[in-house]
M48 family metallopeptidase
Amino acid sequence: MEKVSIMLPTSQKTVEVNLDRKTMKTCRLKVYPTQEIVLSIPQTVPIEWAEEFLTDKSSWIESKLESFQRTSGYAATDEIRNGFSIKMLGEDMLFVLTECDKEQVYSEGKRIYICCHDPDDQEKVWNLFESWWRKQAKAILQKRAEHWYPIIEKYGVAMPKVAVRKMKTLWGSCSVNRGAITLNFYLIKARMPYIDYVILHELTHFLYPNHSKQFYMFLSNYMPDWKERKCILDQEVVHGL
């Protein structure tokens, strides 16, 4: 993978950016909690253009890197320890790990209790947590899909199947042919208005498969503030994707 080095304006620190060339028409810049920076660009874009674009975005990159540094170990999902937390529906949920014979995960108030034989076994803790989280995500996202479904039902669209899986760069995807939408495993970190935006976006694709003018007109009709919701979701809500 190609790499480009840029200097951050405030710290004067030099960082590397990975260039990911894809079959796409626009570019996409992502900063991850791991401090990895990836610029996805069309195959034919010159590297000089990428360097200039990244220089223009250097202040934003620096702010994102600093934000992730401040939240290291807080509302994070790379490690589960007592005192660490994760966002769930916009609220900070504190992890509480206990040693017990019966392995289970449950939530009470703003705490997620993980009971297992060895709380120091991160692999086991993760397996227990992710199994529980997936069930919560499926239940919540299924319910919200059913809430918004009547909007497209009147056009003769059958209720889509809802699947949940880990996705690194997408909040959701839609397969019209299979009659299914797939939603990001960690989407339930966000508050409900932002979850609803993703679900309505994907459901709208059953009427308008592409991001056409008609697609956005339909979306705006039922959710006039979708742009604000998308902006907040992409930039502020969910860390760890």
